[in-house]
Model the fold of this input.
Amino acid sequence: MNHRWKPNVTVAAVIERDGRFLLVEEETADGLRFNQPAGHLEANESLLCAVARETMEETAHPFVPEYLVGVYQWPRPQGDVAYLRFAFGGWAGEGDPARALDEGIVRAVWMTLEELRATHARHRSPLVLQCVEDWLSGRRYGLELLRHYDCGDRNPS
Done:
């Protein structure tokens, strides 16, 4: 059998405001878990558009990515799925309280680093705390590292 392995490409937003980080509490097969606003890259979507879309859908906050915080490769311990996460830091506007959040998202919540560390057992993955710690250590890479080619386009954006 010619089986080709492919990781799940995801994006995540690391958003800090006044020493707190914007997270979501979401329903999972393992119960309620905390995660950054995050989700899967869709067909023909740029990484930057994906992280802005996912943040809006999950938190009702507009998000403008300004930096790449890191690229994380994480195989789940169950061995069934591997993720390739692109985490972005940037600016988030005020949330729209009238906007419905994605299915499965219980709430958007601002948490301190201490609160994040205290709830590590309820994180969706070890990437949640790692992305925040990388942000706090100053990891900020320019978005010019990324090139997105639209279908048929010869010029990257």
Summary: The CA atoms of residues 77 and 125 lie 10 Å apart. Strands lie at 8-14, 16-17, 20-28, 31-35, 38-40, 63-75, 82-92, 105-112.
